[in-house]
Design a protein that fits this description.
Length: about 350
């Protein structure tokens, strides 16, 4: 069989083929590819092996063309993890060799993989993160029994604070979440993603019934929120944000619990909490408290010029958090507008 490069945003029946593999994630969907392409002008190059309409192997790639950070292939940009969909090591290496050959012809500096450790046991890693997944059940009490006592206590506390929860897909809810998102990013010392990125999430994911915005309000003011995706029977907790002035109300715990309940009652099998930095022990403990199973996520960088995997991350930049958090909000939004396309 011949390797074929497919653009999933133009491929009829792509999502059905991906879901049929069972090892898919929300990030393999055509909707996520559309968000990345429309937001940052990346070129989708999905290396595939197929037989009579059945997807046998997939290594998704976005081509990033950037003057300051160089041309490269990333699987996938702005994606927590993106495991290749393959049945064995041979199929994986066939696709990887094809991607390397394409990268050489296209002038790529390197290829970044966000997953694939099963097929690269001896390769050096450029970064390591942790993933957390919760197996869902339709029984609410069974879910609660999996949580740690401290997690259940915070859920009960926030439920008694008079908070109202709204779950919908409107652009207005996206705008409200983005307001909270900008607050949160500033607090963490990083600029926010440009709003057009979230507007495209609304157009290609939320409006297509592939996700929700969950907002918690107090006295008619939205104080915490989350953006969740779903694809097939799997759900993903992609973004969260909150107003620190209302921290004592534990609104983020109630937001997360309401999202989990909605997906469990809708028959979804898995709720993913995204990636966590290995040095972020507080966030790690928070996610573990929800009864999740933890797994390692490894990133790899193949240096095309050197012809081998390297153990450093060329996109890593200095930590300017203490300076960024002092900048005015309009300036931070401008920085995010300019920066993110080059750092994908």
């Amino acid at each position: 069989m011949k390797v074929e490069i497919i653009n999933p945003t133009e491929c009829r029946g792509w999502d059905d083929m991906v879901i049929a593999t069972s090892s898919y994630s929300c990030f393999h969907s055509s909707a996520w590819a559309k968000v990345l392409c429309k937001s940052f002008r990346y070129r989708p190059l999905y290396f595939t092996l197929a037989d009579r309409g059945d997807l046998l192997a997939l290594l998704p790639m976005m081509e990033v063309r950037s003057f300051p950070t160089g041309r490269r292939g990333v699987s996938l940009t702005f994606t927590d993890y993106c495991e290749p969909i393959v049945k064995d090591r041979t199929a994986f290496h066939v696709l990887l060799e094809e991607a390397i050959a394409h990268g050489k012809k296209s002038g790529w500096r390197y290829i970044e993989l966000r997953g694939g450790q099963e097929y690269l046991p001896d390769a050096p890693t450029s970064a390591r993160y942790l993933g957390h997944k919760l197996a869902l059940t339709s029984n609410e009490q069974d879910l609660l029994s999996c949580f740690r006592g401290n997690t259940r206590w915070h859920i009960n506390k926030s439920a008694k604070e008079g908070l109202e929860i709204q779950i919908d897909t409107t652009l207005r809810s996206v705008e409200e979440f983005y307001r909270l998102h900008c607050m949160t990013r500033k607090r963490h010392g990083v600029p926010p993603q440009p709003f057009h990125f979230f507007r495209n999430i609304h157009e290609y994911i939320l409006e297509k019934n592939l996700g929700y915005v969950v907002l918690a309000s107090y006295n008619n003011t939205n104080i915490a929120g989350a953006v969740c995706f779903h694809f097939g029977n799997k759900a993903l907790y992609k973004y969260s944000a909150s107003d620190v002035k209302y921290r004592q109300l534990d609104a983020s715990n109630l937001v997360l619990w309401e999202a989990i309940k909605k997906y469990s009652l809708s028959g979804y099998s898995e709720f993913c909490f995204g990636r966590t930095g290995c040095d972020d022990e507080g966030l790690r403990k928070f996610k573990a408290g929800w009864g999740t199973t933890e797994n390692d996520i490894y990133y790899y960088r193949y240096d095309i010029g050197a012809g081998k995997f390297a153990d450093n991350d060329p996109t890593k930049i200095a930590n300017y958090a203490k300076y960024i958090e002092r900048l005015p909000d309009p300036m931070l939004r401008v920085i995010g507008q300019v920066l993110y396309r080059h750092m994908g």
